């Protein structure tokens, strides 16, 4: 159980504050995460690792010379928002461009991708790379769909070392790709982890059993097996990894090895296991190079471990062996940066600004007020259902959906209220709400709700109430924005399964001259039915995909929360007699 916290909602912020205070020689806190305490040389590629918190030493613990230039830190098990990623990038960038490195999770892909595009629009070259080392999460012929777990440590290390040597951005990306192609990980869990403020783990494993193929965000294993001896486990891990050996490594026997503890498995146990692993690798003709045994990519207090093998060539061995000096990982003595320690970092490029927000007039003021009322209704029902949404999410995910939705809607409502008080047009009110939702919630849902609210606002006029065609266009625009960013389709078991029928039904009914309130109520009924029907689907995207069998029989939390919000807005307009916008 996670016992030491103040306010669970501020767990990550409090952790960052304490971490930076404990390691001032290595890091300094910036909005969104941490960067190196000392400036790097001009022209160096800034390598930024990131993801949700709860994985220490990943990701902030490996910031320093020879390793990462900064770390973007989200809430526990929640992808950081694009705003946080951009903030850290602007603080770390030294003129050589930015490379975001992260595990292959939908929220990370979306949010880091958005940040990279924003940086590029402002003239800073930026790239993203997602690690895909988890062999249990997808078959060998679908490697691009695999999750990123502890093998990311090896990818982060070699790419960072290449950047430290002065390699340009494209070359650092190539090193990351090359390392990832040769890296495989398999993990097991003996028991689940507990989120701060919760009194029960996200999952449990029966006594004498283990979960094979765990996720590092509190996801249970993809299957269960009998927990035998350390020798038995070592053989299962090594055999599984060798069966997935990269095709182009048959003549190579050098491997970087990471035996990783997940948070509650003691070092003594790991060393017992390592003794058996080392012998089995030797029998397989493999030579470990600078093996690492310990906690490197954890999952709060999860009991379990993972084994990573990364097949090395001469280039990768040099980069793996290269010195590094970070709070949680030290190897050799890195060369000090060739800059004055007192030098200031380059000024960050100015942030893009919205075009001047138009003030609302006439009926548009009332439309903006209705948008605020809708967000207020959404806040009330999401807080009411937060625990239930979390339980739905915990079936095949990390259990944070309800908490994330509450953070997002709270921020969105506050931003919308301020924009409305300034008498801004509906588009500006909803843009402010969308940006705030995405920034505070993070994760997949934060990014999707952010672009949806922005798209709805962009379809509304600034100086009058919207007409029927504009309302239809707003619903369609929200669907287009969500599918364009997330790539989901109907049937993938995501919020799109509820949003698509809602948008289609609303637009169709409006264009057949039904009263707006009736058209909306009918569309909401379609969304609710579709959300319930997701219980019969197998997830094809997101963190739930590797646990598809567990998910069958449970509705998708994203579709459920969307239907809940749409229903609340319908109820609001039934009681007030106003038309939804």
UniProtKB/TrEMBL annotation:
Positions of the DhaK domain: 7-329
This protein's record includes keyword ATP-binding: yes
One example of a Gene Ontology biological process annotation: carbohydrate utilization
Domain of life per record: Bacteria
Pfam family, one: Dak1
A GO cellular component annotation in the UniProt record: cytosol
Keywords: ATP-binding, Carbohydrate metabolism, Kinase, Nucleotide-binding, Transferase
InterPro entries reported for this sequence: DhaK_dom (IPR004006), DhaL_dom (IPR004007), DhaL_dom_sf (IPR036117), Dihydroxyacetone_Kinase (IPR050861)
Pathway stated in the Swiss-Prot or TrEMBL entry: Carbohydrate metabolism
Domain DhaL: start-end pairs: 369-571
Any one GO molecular-function label of the UniProt entry: carbohydrate binding
Biased segments, Low complexity type: 344-358
Signal peptide range: none
Annotated region (Disordered), positions in chain: 327-358, 536-559
Protein name: D-erythrulose kinase
Native organism: Streptomyces antimycoticus
Name of the coding gene: derK
